[in-house]
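Slide 14.
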Amino acid sequence: MAEKTYDLTVIGSGPGGYVAAIRAAQLGMTVAIIERYPTLGGTCLNVGCIPSKALLDSSEHYFQAKHQFAEHGIKVTGLKVDLPQMIKRKQEVVEATTAGVAFLMKKNKIDVYEGHGSFVDKNTIKVAQAEGKEVQIKTDKTIIATGSKPMQLPGIEVDGTHILTSTEALELTKLPKEMIVIGGGVIACEMASVFGRLGTKITMIEYMDRLIPGMDAALGKELLKVLKKELDYEAHFNHKAVGAEVKNRKVVVTAENTKTGEKTEFKGDICLVAVGRRPYTDNLGLEAIGLETDRGRIPVNDDLETAIPGIYAIGDVIRGAMLAHKASEEGVFVAEKIAGQRPHINYRSIPNVVYTWPEVAGTGYTEEELKEKKVPYKSGSFPFRASGRARASMDNQFGFVKILSHKETDELLGMHIIGPRAADMIMEGVIGLEYRASAEDIAIFSHPHPTFSESVKEAAMGATGNRIIHL
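Slide 15: predicted structure.
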């Protein structure tokens, strides 16, 4: 293939990379995208967000059929889990989604190169392709969007059979009786929900003192209640996993109590290591252009440009939360910056979501952050047990909406939800933060009845004063 020249080349086709490529093409640039795997979409579409949500939905349908259908007047006999079919459906969802991205590349006249991309110099990228083939392309600007890989722990070797990451767990076709989950963050809770709903006993080992430690503490506390009541589940907080080995086809995980130093062994059929992700910058040829990383991440300025002019980085390889939608926003931001526009990202308003059921979502400041910063604030909370819509759908056992506003100005500072459709309702908080709305602004807007979103209005009424109606 003859060497080609592009205005912009994107290395990585995840939600940050492919969105950046599309926006740049819309703005009139000639664009190439490099992806080392056969399908586009990165971790999110192939082995992350999309497949995990497919399995979460399947497992929730099974759980409802087993525990709630009878009360709805729906009688079910012969109910059983067909895990291979769940995996098959999950894969069909993945294939349709990744095919959609491939279509968008063609639609926007973006050249796709399959292979591993690395820098020869700041304007030349080498693509190592199958069977030892290689092609080089020239580029004026480059965006590094290579995403992340699951982190591993010292003393715990992932073998893909008994000790797994989320990637291998998404391919299981035999339901384990007992699963040890190392970690208590978003991925850990979601995967625990998938298999716990289907009947697997879950033992969770978490280094911190609560679930989803990056979110408002009240959300993690409520989620723990859900998991304990609905699943065969136990959690061991303040425990550090220090070793794992396979004995007689069982995994034995050794964990150390971080307060007492006492060691305990936990046994299960499989062990899921879900302790977070690390930036993936392996073999990118960064040394060829003099670009250094900082604790694995690529430093960037406010324009998301690296120390090398014309080379940008977005998503999981740079600072901030590792979220697909954050990467997408950054992809658009960089494309528009290169085009001379003045785009905007408010990182504080980017929402974080856990797709358990009930769902968990938060945006803005947590209550713990406001206390640490000594910001005067008010709090309003409304439980879904008082929601008529949640009662009608049998989603009123757990959850609440919590709104934080400034004590003096009433400006919205944060919104935190655990409840049905929290992932969708959190956008009310995102918009409120972006437009610097007050809690009263949200409280005075008419919310349709009966809806889950009425609980947002009621929580806002609580934050503005003692105005909650239905509690």
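Speaker note: Residues 254 and 265 are 5 Å apart (CA to CA).
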